[in-house]
Amino acid sequence: MSDGLQVSQLSSLLVEDAVRAALREDLGRAGDLTSDAIIRPGDQTSALIRTRARGCIAGMQLAEASFRALDPQASFDVVVSDGTVADPGAIIAEVRGPARAILTGERTALNFLIHLSGIATLTHTYVDAVAGTSAHICCTRKTTPGLRALEKYAVRVGGGMNHRFGLDDAILIKDNHIAFAGDIATAIERVRARASHMVKVEVEVDTLAQLETVLGFDVDAVLLDNMTPDHLKAAVRLAGGRVITEASGGVSLETVRAIAEAGVNLISVGALTHSAPALDLGLDLA
Amino acid sequence: MSDGLQVSQLSSLLVEDAVRAALREDLGRAGDLTSDAIIRPGDQTSALIRTRARGCIAGMQLAEASFRALDPQASFDVVVSDGTVADPGAIIAEVRGPARAILTGERTALNFLIHLSGIATLTHTYVDAVAGTSAHICCTRKTTPGLRALEKYAVRVGGGMNHRFGLDDAILIKDNHIAFAGDIATAIERVRARASHMVKVEVEVDTLAQLETVLGFDVDAVLLDNMTPDHLKAAVRLAGGRVITEASGGVSLETVRAIAEAGVNLISVGALTHSAPALDLGLDLA
Amino acid sequence: MSDGLQVSQLSSLLVEDAVRAALREDLGRAGDLTSDAIIRPGDQTSALIRTRARGCIAGMQLAEASFRALDPQASFDVVVSDGTVADPGAIIAEVRGPARAILTGERTALNFLIHLSGIATLTHTYVDAVAGTSAHICCTRKTTPGLRALEKYAVRVGGGMNHRFGLDDAILIKDNHIAFAGDIATAIERVRARASHMVKVEVEVDTLAQLETVLGFDVDAVLLDNMTPDHLKAAVRLAGGRVITEASGGVSLETVRAIAEAGVNLISVGALTHSAPALDLGLDLA
Amino acid sequence: MSDGLQVSQLSSLLVEDAVRAALREDLGRAGDLTSDAIIRPGDQTSALIRTRARGCIAGMQLAEASFRALDPQASFDVVVSDGTVADPGAIIAEVRGPARAILTGERTALNFLIHLSGIATLTHTYVDAVAGTSAHICCTRKTTPGLRALEKYAVRVGGGMNHRFGLDDAILIKDNHIAFAGDIATAIERVRARASHMVKVEVEVDTLAQLETVLGFDVDAVLLDNMTPDHLKAAVRLAGGRVITEASGGVSLETVRAIAEAGVNLISVGALTHSAPALDLGLDLA
Amino acid sequence: MSDGLQVSQLSSLLVEDAVRAALREDLGRAGDLTSDAIIRPGDQTSALIRTRARGCIAGMQLAEASFRALDPQASFDVVVSDGTVADPGAIIAEVRGPARAILTGERTALNFLIHLSGIATLTHTYVDAVAGTSAHICCTRKTTPGLRALEKYAVRVGGGMNHRFGLDDAILIKDNHIAFAGDIATAIERVRARASHMVKVEVEVDTLAQLETVLGFDVDAVLLDNMTPDHLKAAVRLAGGRVITEASGGVSLETVRAIAEAGVNLISVGALTHSAPALDLGLDLA
Amino acid sequence: MSDGLQVSQLSSLLVEDAVRAALREDLGRAGDLTSDAIIRPGDQTSALIRTRARGCIAGMQLAEASFRALDPQASFDVVVSDGTVADPGAIIAEVRGPARAILTGERTALNFLIHLSGIATLTHTYVDAVAGTSAHICCTRKTTPGLRALEKYAVRVGGGMNHRFGLDDAILIKDNHIAFAGDIATAIERVRARASHMVKVEVEVDTLAQLETVLGFDVDAVLLDNMTPDHLKAAVRLAGGRVITEASGGVSLETVRAIAEAGVNLISVGALTHSAPALDLGLDLA
């Protein structure tokens, strides 16, 4: 974006909490038996983190924090910032300092980087696939338990948009909710009677008839579920810009362009966070 | 296995901790705005969890706990147990009880199930691919931060073996460690002088010459890194059953059978935990 | 509300976390020295919780959980539900069971009840003061650290609306933000370029000129800061229903009716959560 | 006090725990959407915290920690120390550094300051009201759940004394306890048989006859519950300096002076912590 | 004690927190590898916990909770209650139910029992050694980090008294504090100016001259540090019942009777909590 | 050891977690009442930590962290490193800086040092007792709940070996497990069918006949339970170096040499961690 602002960083509190939990998981009770037995406390080293495949980098704050939580003497230089697409073999960061901290922290740092870069890379591929259309790619709540904020950050890094972060920051009325209300109108009315003015409301619709009903109410967005591109086009026309239109269901790299060309504002893709393969990265001693 | 013992269950403490953290993440501060606005507190319902693709199921304990942590009145019946391969469209579980708990817990329950079943399914595919050989498929420490115990459980469910759970329960001497010791012999000696008698020692080797050196010491296993099948065969012959042989690096569904036929005991596959796509599952109200 | 739905309950996870933290705070390391010394383990009792002043009750779930976390044998009957206005001297709940749990839990249960009922009561007073106008009373982020979700629940119980729950669930552009962007248009554009489609955007304005500028952009609400009723009337007229109008600043029970009659949609009152006096309640053995 | 010692500070561990919990509550999963979208990472600023009403300041350590937990580059200068009464409009602190940390931390810092300064101010008002008498104003266990240590600190800052911090650091025998023992003598005997020599014992009495009974035992203090000033005078005379006398119940700014003049040592006021209105403070960019 | 009251129980919250932390420590990431591999999920068993040495039992609540946290189906019958001295070979409890929970929980249950019973037993020995004198045996703050509340409970179970539980529930002025105040009078005055009326004050003295100074002030107890029995006798005479007298330092089973016969009220023994050998106990399948 | 490597350090994360928990336990809600009342915030001091008995020092990292967690201005100089045997009266560390942090942290620092040095010292005594034999002294899982990693570190510092850290890092088949399998062969087969290749397997045997059976399987170690030295000698001869031999049960300083001379590889001693008396250490202001 031309205003010079980066994609928003993760807060340092969140980074620290996540890294410490991950290190505790890997160190267990007894710590790094191998490094402790072999490496002398004073030994220093430096190492490079390199890509082994092309991909969009995400997670540098977490990698840096992984080494520095073990030893604040470790220094970490970012060579390729989050959001940049790196070629295979590119050096993306350099870490220098106490050898024990670097070898002990290696796996934790890489586990964050390969997972988040994997998500950013897949997001980036989807974003590329709809280039030139007005559609934005966005994520869902189908995230790995415990990692939602990090994974949604990786989606932003890859050029995607975030959908809601939880059950509590936006309202999404689905079929199952409508079943309990009796009909779509009652569901929306119940929500309108209780929702804060600062909370957006989206309604899932499967048919144009449902969409027409929904458009009679004050809602912010409609989730067009599992519609064909032609069906979506008709829905977008019907919506006429009065609500945000989001396509969902059956989205793949094969189908996404046609969906985007149907004119929807957003396409949500669960795979971004639940099925992105890790980006292959490695750490080598310099 | 013919002795009637199941794959070991997850401890109830671990399940409860994981589920509560995941629910807190999804509920945020304000809870489920949509369900709370629409569903009456006393409303009851029942729902079925179904596969939408063929796969090996894992995570039933976590799914059950996701609903019951919200409301102990919820009942959960497992139709397809962990470790079973289900066809697309199969009903794998039924949940009954308070509608709010079922709709609020749905995503958390499914997020555990799709992630762990994805891992179990990919593991199962690898295990199938080496059927009839003596090789076992095993996982690595390349897991999603915070979920190692759950992901390693899913690997077992899929028929795989677990490698070490952390830096503290086994010793794995890698190239980087050897560099600090000066040579492979010194590295092994330092480890032998400090390792508990209850801790196994594995050494990474890249060449047959290194393997020959390692065989002169008391080690339990060797990690044969990035070797071709022919190379592996020679290594297995050289090892002569004196140590466990583990192939690692460059393993894919295309290459795994040839690697297995080289006669190694184990093949470790990082992708099992870092790149398994989610298994597509859904919950439908009955 | 005529649809029979209650004000949304607090999730049981949230209630349990809050109550356990409060009990740990009161029990310290050594527990209840007085009750442990005097009351026999088997002693049973029953007690009534009564109002000592007129007020709107809130927090019954927390009171019940306070006793039951100490001893699941304790039973708790709600006589007056959350959201009901009780006269002085009214019995609002009865608790029965192990005397130790009842005496030990008394202060924790009451501390939740008097604080949340105090907030609900003050909210109710403000809501009454604007009865017949179209204005809703809502809260702010000026809450007691650690208790935001509970205090916002009490506001709902008292008939108020909730504003955003944190920095992450809605966007509110204030003067200070505008200063960093350079002008109001740039601030809104930066936000629009990054905000999720599920996040609402509100902008603070001090003058009609600012309001006019803001109305040229896609924003959901405007916070009219510290305006007189006449000023507010003009702002409402200018807004013309295109955005939600929220009055803020200088709101008291003396001024709130005039503000409401200016036609704004919402009036936010920090005092609801930061300055509500406790509602006087007591527990007496039956 | 003339010995140059300040009112005891809060421990840095306690401050850090409280501040991090409060920031996590406000940042939620997604962080500060507004500041992240608008303010450039490198932007610097400075801001002043000012009173908008006369009051006794408390909580500077927490305000400072709120900014510095977000970014250690933030510097914080205390202009008016805890315990000082500031006039309306007074600058009480200046914060300088990264703009994001200052705008993101503003509400958390202020929420601590307005709540604790509110308590200190109300305490100070009560202390002033009994000036010249021998009575001390003290707090109770009627505190906001989770904030007891901070609120009791604010009472000290305002010139008040602390009563016990929990059920475990002192013994207070109330009517309800006596009911279970059968009579006051048995209750005291049971306590005497079990209480550590380092734990004080106070007994609640409603009548002079009860007081006379209690004076026959080894107790440290008596809580004179809901007595009129004349009644209190008689009780103080009867106690004759053998025990500490504490008046409790029905204390307000209207009645407190007369109660103090009855000669009691202490007057406990629940309102200090459960009903103190916040002190109005604001942060303005310099 | 003849009033039928037991030594105060541990709160269920404290027990649950301690037991879950201990189980998590023993189960690690992978759980009980041995039992999970060998025992079928449905297998039932029963087991007896027996003493292998004579001692005073403490910790039954923790033992029970250790099994039941793993599986609520486990039932636990206390045969010998906390505080009872059991002969070698005595059955002290029986546990019945799921075999996995019993074998997995065995070590955690026993670790609590052997540690706490060891403390209770040593305490009981000291209490016996001073039988017939007026001295009480009490503990110190020299406890194992993390276990203070449990260890102090075990001291009570063994017939001892508790000294303060932490730095915050009583005041103990030591030599080092006096050094900073300049002299003993200033130290006491500073404390008196700040201490809550519900907090006791003890002062450490090394000489009779110091004791004489201290007796001129309002203090509750004196700690007579490292005095001989003759010295102690003189101190007790000088104190004349005006303060509680506590002997400390150089206390062993050889010296404790002579110290008690010097007439002090209390004898504090650090060894009770920092050097008590475990009581030998074992679990055998029935 | 001649390679210049120290006994492995504790990870800084583990040290920090343990120290903060211990300080929170000692400070409670109100902090250090005595030091806060008497010592001026700016007061500086220095203090020496000295032995009062001969012993092997362990825990310096924890002592240092105890002071520095309270105030990072405190400096800590290690005079005698972990693993060194110090004579009575030796200065082992010096701490300098803010007097409040030093007096407040004193007990926490010493509680870690006296406990861990006690364990190291007892371990050292056992290690000395078997000097010249080929036996190593090792610990068990009979540790104090919550402190296993620290106590096992102290065992290493004293020259001992560590047995497994939990139920999850190695397999130990005991009598009770065999009972559920039916016979020893079935138990081992079940374990072999499930155990990771990186997990060692030990089997408890009571007789030579059992040992002979076990030697027919692939196991890593045998635990020879409660055998006499002659019995042990026969067992070692029978094992013939094919498995590690560990003697357990009935080990004391009187019996350990004879056991070692029977030729076993390891002697496990529960007393190292459950019954080591604290090493007497004190802190004196300089």
Oligomer: homohexamer
Topology-level CATH name of the largest domain in chain A: TIM Barrel
Poorly predicted spans of chain A: none
Q: What is the gyration radius of chain A calculated from CA atoms?
A: 22 Å
Proportion in β-strands of chain A: 15-25%
Overall geometric form of chain A: elongated
Q: What is the chain-wise order of helices and strands of chain A?
A: HHEEHEEEHEHEHHEHEHEHEHE
CATH structural class of the largest domain in chain A = Alpha Beta
Describe the largest sheet of chain A: 6 strands, parallel
| Nearest-integer average pLDDT of chain A | 95
What's the domain count of chain A? Answer: 2
Number of helices of chain A: 11
Strand order of the largest sheet of chain A: 6-11-10-9-8-7
Q: What's the end-to-end separation of chain A, in Å?
A: 35 Å
The CATH homologous superfamily of the largest domain in chain A corresponds to: Aldolase class I
Binned, the helix content of chain A reads: 40-55%
Which structural class best describes the helix and strand composition of chain A? alpha/beta
CATH-derived architecture of the largest domain in chain A:
Alpha-Beta Barrel
